[in-house]
Amino acid sequence: MRKLHVFDTTLRDGEQSLGITLNVKEKLEIGHQLVKLGVDIIEAGFPASSPGDMESVRTLAKEVKGVIICGLTRAVAPDIDLCAEALRNAEYPRIHTGIGVSPVHMEKKLKLSPDQVVEQAVAAVKYAKKYVSDVEFYAEDAFRSDPSFLVRVIENVITAGATVVNLPDTVGYANPWEYGELISYVINNVKNIDRAIVSVHCHNDLGMATANSLAGIKAGASQVEGTINGIGERAGNTSLEEVIMSIYTRRDGYGVESKINTREISATSRLVSRITGVTVPDHKAIVGANAFNHASGIHQDGVLKDRETYEIIQPETIGVPQNIISLTARSGRHALQHCLEELGYTIEGAQLDDVYQRFLQLADQKKEVFDQDLYVLMGDSGGMESSIVLQSMSIATNGVEMATATVILEIEGILITDAACGNGPVNALFNTIDRITGNTAILEDYTLKSVTRSSEALGEATVKLRYEDGRLVVGKGFSTDIIEASAKAYINALDKRGLRNEQEV
Question: pLDDT averaged over the chain?
Answer without folding.
Answer: 90
